[in-house]
């Protein structure tokens, strides 16, 4: 019988990190003229982080790469899953997905729920970037990282992996 469905299963599909290895990383390298010191990306499946970080580390051996996870669900940094409100972030499938390669991480950054929502709104209202909640968390973690490493002249790339469009009716009132 002919199958009438397709399940991409982004948590186990090797094409998830492969797409970011072949495309996202190449776009970053091209647009940044191969000059990137730090790469920061939120983690849902870990595919965006892993695929992009792998290629960036191959091309730029001194780059530092950091995944971001919810502070209240620190599976990568502390080994447990907890409740959080950062939709699209946090490896809450019961474990670390096979598409995530932790060996590529130079550390783990975290963000609180409230800070993620606050940054999402700030990106929208002050910068004109309609980012989603997980992007708010990623940008907040990147901002904190940049403050801790101020005056070092670092070129930091932050990958925004969601849009705020689907949150217009509720998240902007948080």
From TrEMBL:
Assigned keywords, A-Z: Amino-acid biosynthesis, Cysteine biosynthesis, Pyridoxal phosphate, Transferase
Residues covered by the Tryptophan synthase beta chain-like PALP domain: 2-162
GO molecular function: cysteine synthase activity
Domain of life: Bacteria
Cofactors named for this entry: pyridoxal 5'-phosphate
EC number: 2.5.1.47
Transmembrane segments: none
Catalysed reactions, as listed in the record: O-acetyl-L-serine + hydrogen sulfide = L-cysteine + acetate
Pfam families attached to this UniProt entry: PALP
Keyword Ribosomal protein on entry: no
PANTHER family (UniProt xref): CYSTATHIONINE BETA-SYNTHASE (PTHR10314)
Family (UniProt): Belongs to the cysteine synthase/cystathionine beta-synthase family.
Protein's UniProt name: cysteine synthase
């Amino acid at each position: 019988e002919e199958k009438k469905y397709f399940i991409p299963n982004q948590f186990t599909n090797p094409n998830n990190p492969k797409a970011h290895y072949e495309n996202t990383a190449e776009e970053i390298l091209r647009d940044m003229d191969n000059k990137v010191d730090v790469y920061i990306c939120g983690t849902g499946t870990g595919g965006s982080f892993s695929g992009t970080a792998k290629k960036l580390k191959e091309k730029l051996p001194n780059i530092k790469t950091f995944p971001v996870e919810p502070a209240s669900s620190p599976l990568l940094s502390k080994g447990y899953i907890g409740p959080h409100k950062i939709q699209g972030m946090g490896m809450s499938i019961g474990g670390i997905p096979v598409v995530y390669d932790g060996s590529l991480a130079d550390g783990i950054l975290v963000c609180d729920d409230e800070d993620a929502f606050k940054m999402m709104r700030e990106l929208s209202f002050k910068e004109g970037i309609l980012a989603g909640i997980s992007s708010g968390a990623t940008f907040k973690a990147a901002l904190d990282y940049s403050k801790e490493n101020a005056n070092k002249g670092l070129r930091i790339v932050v990958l925004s992996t969601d849009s705020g469009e689907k949150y217009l009716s509720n998240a902007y009132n948080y």
